[in-house]
Write a structure and sequence with these properties.
The chain starts with a helix and ends with a helix. The chain has 19 helices and no strands. It has a domain of 164 residues: Up-down Bundle (Four Helix Bundle (Hemerythrin (Met), subunit A)), CATH 1.20.120. It is mainly alpha-helical and 562 residues long. The structure holds protoporphyrin IX containing FE (2 copies). The site of one protoporphyrin IX containing FE has 28 residues, from helix 9, helix 13, helix 14 and helix 15.
Amino acid sequence: MRQSTLQVQADMNSAVAIFYAVSFFATTLALIALIWAITRGQLEHGSLGARVIFRRGEVGHTEEPAATEEERAKLVIASGRTPEAPDPADEAETRAEIEARRIADTSSRGPVLFHLTSSIIWLLVGSLAGLIVSLKFTMPDWLTDSALLTFGRLRPLHLNTVIYGWLSMNGIAVALWLFPRLLKTPLRGGRYAIAGGVLWNLGMIIGSVSLLVGWTDGLEWLEFPWPADTLIVIGGALAGVPLLVTLAARKVEHLYVSVWYLLAAFLWFPIIYLIANIPHTFTGVDNAVMNWWYAHNVLGLWLTPIGLASAYYFIPKVIGRPVYSYQLSLIGFWSLAMFYSQAGIHHLIGGPIPTWLVTTSVVMSVGMVFPVIAVAVNHHYTMKGRFSALKSSPTLRFMVSGAMMYTLVSLQGCTESLRSVSHIVHFTHYTVAHAHFGVYGFASFIAFGSVYFLLPRLIEREWPYPNLIKWHFWLAIGGFAVYFVTLSIGGVLQGLAMLDATRPFIESVRVTIPFLWGRTLGGATMVVAHFVFAFHVFMMIRRRGPAREVSPWAQAITSVTP
Ligand code: HEM
Ligand code: HEM
């Protein structure tokens, strides 16, 4: 016994050393960046920093390309429009800025459209796989004749396609669109991004086929084998080139908070992805530690900053009101960088790893309350008094719901990291409900909202069937509510049944069956929502929407010139 404990501790040394070295490196980078920001006066911009996404005289003017004319008129009222007095002397400057935005959009159109359309195809593939996997919980003998369609192959297919295909490619598209806008510089090297997108897609296809034929690395979130990993790494690096080149050529001095989040995400993700995929380095317990350090950081240092970057741009932009507290947004950013990277071991509570390592991760997880509350307070006060704007803005409906779900899922996660709660819900469907709350309720809703804002700008058309946006929203949120509630209840009952030594194990399975059917019902509704969304995007790209009577640029000029 003593020997095995020593063995476990010895095994831990290299994993812990790497885990802590990298986390420490990430935190130190954050600190260096903070010092750089302070010395460059980035934190002193105060309210000016929040206003850089508006041109002079634009505050108070709503911008919602996804809304109909009628909705736009209502949005103006709901947003409590208090426009700053336009100054006719600024007209030339305003025209120049509007033209710069048009040029920015033109420069990013190709790469953004390529990544967006790819991401939506992966969303369809991934959600269909999720639905089949869900049905297999209640009909375990269904589709078992072919090894290709068994649970062990379709489940990783679902996870990898929605995370790396849907959410990641969508995030790259949003970054490629936001950078030229926020840096007031046309996108440079867009061809690299398209080449990167082609390789990324190729990696996704090879990875997906590999999983179906049974070639897998066998670690959750890291199942893709090395050829797929390599293509994704090269593809991601190529997609990142235009971001860095455009950053270097930027025409603005101040970097808006969304740029900080995106830059950090594009720095962190390659680091963790490369480390996690180094072959023959991690074995045994080390492997589990590295696995969950990686998987947690994909959520916290990749998907979360991308989602927050979008929310920080689109919410203020649509309602025409700068973010409530710019300082708070920066504090939120730095505290996320501080806490997130060392929280991942909460996935292994109860596992054969040193207590201090788990305790550190629990402390860091609870520390996540700081960045989460900072973001929540900021978004709440930005929206305060304007929540009725959600009725008339499709982008806001998705964005604000997503931002709210970010707060809720994170607070739920903080409680889930406590040993007493984990004791009941670990290894249950409750975790899966939490997982979808984060990656669907938060990250996917924000992604949907971004698409609704971006496409009319890129295609220069209105959405062809505005009612379909409403259908998409209600099917997605309704389906997700059923998914989340049923699975959470089923998960707790399952956990309690497993802990009760007087009940046979099979009871903990039986008790979940009605709730698993509930999940399938909710999931099927979500899948329908995705097909509605994809059909609408397809029609939009085929330019089936009406051309705008007045171009957004001309409209913007008329709204500030008397
Ligand atoms: C910031 C505060 C958060 C904390 C402290 C937290 C905590 C946790 C914990 C403790 C688990 C593991 C549960 C178990 O296995 O027993 C978990 C799982 C998970 N969380 Fe969170 N969470 C947070 C936010 C988020 C967010 C924002 C997302 C999505 C973007 C997310 C997505 C997930 C996913 C996908 C899993 C399941 C991973 C897997 O098993 O494959 N979480 N979280
Ligand atoms: C964009 C949409 C979606 C995303 C991003 C997503 C993401 C995920 C993630 C991260 C996991 C791993 C969770 C964990 O291990 O705790 C997962 C598992 C799963 N998802 Fe989804 N999902 C999506 C849509 C769906 C849909 C529409 C369904 C349909 C019912 C579904 C059904 C499942 C099932 C059955 C599992 C396996 C759960 C288990 O092994 O216990 N998902 N999904």
